[in-house]
Amino acid sequence: MRYIVQARLKHHKEQALKQAIRKRTLGKGSIAGGEYVRNMKQARLLDNGTATWIEICFCDPPLDEERPYWEEYFHLLAIEDAVDRQHCKHETGKKPWSCVSCNCTAKQEKAMESLGKSFYESLPHTDDPKS
């Protein structure tokens, strides 16, 4: 299932998050693997200071496995269905795990490009050239 996540970056976590994205250690140890980095590269920073992104998750409750990784950096404000569950092939049982290869996320992320600005690009540059 796909979810729209809205979150606020925790105070003084900007540099640590940017380094974790650059070094690809964000979410290390999670079953979701590189999905965290991809989420942050696609995330949008809205005018109200919140970040929003679309996340694929098969947990019940949503983001159950991912939550500790995200909460290291963010205050999670909202996690909402990004698509109607009646139209999701995974949720209807028509094609289990179909969210992994479905083009819904790409379409939704393309639509989100008009919102705010790139969250990742808005993070401050780090002084460490190796990060």
Strand content bin: 15-25%
Major β-sheet profile: 5 strands, antiparallel
Order of helices and strands: EHHEEHEHHEH
Instruction: Report the end-to-end length measured between terminal Cα atoms.
Output: 33 Å
Q: In which range does the helix fraction lie?
A: 25-40%
Q: How does the helix and strand content classify structurally?
A: alpha+beta
Shape: globular
Oligomer status? single chain
Tally of separate helices: 6
Number of strands: 5
Radius of gyration: 15 Å
Overall average pLDDT: 83
Description of the structure:
The chain has one domain. A 5-stranded antiparallel β-sheet has the order 4-1-3-2-5. The mean pLDDT is 83. It has 6 helices and 5 strands. Helix content is 30%, strand content 20%. It is of the alpha+beta class.
Topology:
Elements: E1 2-9, H1 14-22, H2 35-42, E2 44-45, E3 51-56, H3 67-71, E4 74-81, H4 89-92, H5 104-112, E5 117-118, H6 119-122
Compose a concise summary of this entry.
The protein has six helices and five strands; from the N terminus they run E-H-H-E-E-H-E-H-H-E-H.
Features:
single chain, 131 residues, alpha+beta, five-stranded antiparallel sheet, 30% helix
